[in-house]
Amino acid sequence: MRVSSYRFFALDVETACSDVASICQIGIACVKSDDMIQTWSTYVNPRTHFSPFNSRLHGIGPAHVTDAPDFAEAIALVEPLLARHHIIQHSNFDRRAIHGAHALIGRKAPPWTWGDSVRIARRAWPEFIGNGGHGLAHLKRRLKLTFVHHDAGEDARAAAEVVLHAEKRTGQTFEAMLFSAGQVR
């Protein structure tokens, strides 16, 4: 995999329970320089309980993660690559989860450059404010995206597609939309 061939990554996580650090799945969408998207996902053993609510939401339970790597092992696979690119999340949840999971293993979260596809969507489709909003479920319908909601790999891909659609609609790069909207690096 050539590092220079990626423009940005979109990242999504699913959690086992209400503890934001209880990551049980990580998904990454890798957006290549030609805007093609490759996805990668893995289950993660959160080493904690699963709440019935979360399991109903995403369909992941203890049996799915029995032989999965824990967070430290899973993040080690992708951390070097993520450190060199913008990382897009859809809302602030994923960043908080990554920071929480790092704290849980006694490590400081890496100083990645985060961006939010919700902010990008608000710039591209201001008419959705008060008219369905900028959540993935609404954007799925309005932009005719095809994905399985609450699967980390699929949601990461959807966030990446939102960014690409927004770039086409506005004629601006995702960086221009993020940083003109006051996004913090």
Automatic annotation (TrEMBL):
The keyword Hydrolase applies. GO terms for biological process: DNA metabolic process. PROSITE patterns: PROKAR_LIPOPROTEIN. Residues 7-172 form the Exonuclease domain. The keyword Hydrolase applies. GO terms for molecular function: 3'-5' exonuclease activity; nucleic acid binding. InterPro entries: Ribonucl_H, RNaseH-like_sf, RNaseH_sf. It holds the Pfam family RNase_T. Keywords: Exonuclease, Hydrolase, Nuclease. One of its GO terms (cellular component) is cytosol. This is 3'-5' exonuclease. It comes from Pikeienuella piscinae.
